[in-house]
Design a protein that fits this description.
It contains 15 helices and nine strands. By secondary structure, the chain is an alpha/beta fold.
């Protein structure tokens, strides 16, 4: 079994689920299976799903529980090699050149070679992930890959194929032990099949009511049981409505934290109206839910909880 310096890599699916649980991540067996296979086979884990369902958290928990360093590449439109892999520290190079000129150093060729060496290199996330680390191979999180353009996606494909990158002035940097790679996508565009084929794919959906309630219990044990059940029921009801952006698990947790901070042990229509901005992030969605609609939803949640004996 492969061994990490901080903690052994899980030997089976059950140990993988325990690993996630130790980081307060409530996962279903499907996710546990995909993560175990990614670790066992040395393949990137590609997580796709709506925003706020816990994709990024998988990488954070994995790094924390394995005792590895987390290296995060936050993707955005226009991301290029200089921001993702490396660039030269031009300011430091210029200072070195000025110092050499002031000292009347005539060896210009030697100077040119000296300033294109590792001390003048600014390492970005992808290059950092390929280099050795005392605690073992890091967890590389490539977050929201769908926000980048296709040329960068193709470049990333090349790195993930061989876990190496070539720096013309220095040569090829190759990972002695490949990093654990987690890639996330909110599916704002389709990621190319060529990249997906090299990954273990997992779709993360919104949790059902039982699992979402367990998430709240684990992550926010200070919230009252009644409040947690009401929050889950209310959020689950909103996900059935025609909203521009339905709330994810991240919003459920944020809303519960806000309610606990307000010393609420249960929901009431006024509190819902006052705190909806924690749960919903678009004005049109707020207008559709606030007021009588929110009160009706809360009453329906109360009826369902009463019928279930909660």
């Amino acid at each position: 079994m492969p061994i990490a310096e901080g903690r052994p890599v899980p030997a089976d699916i059950d140990e993988t689920l325990e690993l996630l649980a130790d980081g307060d991540y409530v996962a279903d067996r499907s996710l546990g299976t995909s993560l175990f296979l990614a670790l066992e086979l040395g393949r990137p884990l590609f997580l796709e799903g709506e925003a706020g369902v816990g994709k990024t958290e998988v990488a954070k928990v994995l790094a924390a529980t394995l005792g590895r360093r987390l290296i995060r590449l936050q993707c955005y439109e226009g991301l290029d090699v200089s921001s993702a892999v490396y660039e030269w520290n031009y300011a430091r190079q210029m200072i070195e050149i000025r110092i050499a000129e002031a000292a009347d150093d005539a060896d210009r060729e030697g100077l040119a070679a000296d300033v294109f060496t590792p001390p003048f290199l600014i390492r970005r996330p992808l290059l950092e992930a390929l280099e050795p680390h005392e605690e073992g191979p890091p967890v590389l999180l490539v977050d929201e890959l769908d926000r980048t353009d296709e040329p960068f996606e193709a470049f990333l494909l090349e790195i993930l194929s061989d876990f190496q990158v070539t720096i013309p002035e220095i040569g090829t940097v190759r990972a002695e032990r490949p990093p654990v790679v987690v890639i996330t996508s909110n599916r704002t565009r389709e990621v190319h099949d060529a990249l997906k084929r090299r990954c273990i794919y997992q779709w993360i959906d919104y949790p059902d009511a039982a699992r979402e309630l367990e998430i709240l219990r684990v992550r926010l044990p200070g919230a009252s049981e009644r409040l947690s059940r009401q929050v889950v029921g209310f959020v689950q009801a909103l996900r059935q409505r025609d909203l521009y952006k339905v709330p994810g698990v991240a919003e459920s947790l944020d809303w519960t934290r806000a309610l606990v901070a307000l010393d609420r042990v249960a929901l009431d229509p006024e509190t819902v109206d006052d705190t909806l901005g924690v749960l919903l992030k678009y004005r049109d969605d707020l207008d559709r839910v606030r007021g009588e609609a929110a009160a009706d939803t809360l009453r329906e949640v109360e009826r369902e909880l009463a019928a279930a004996g909660s």
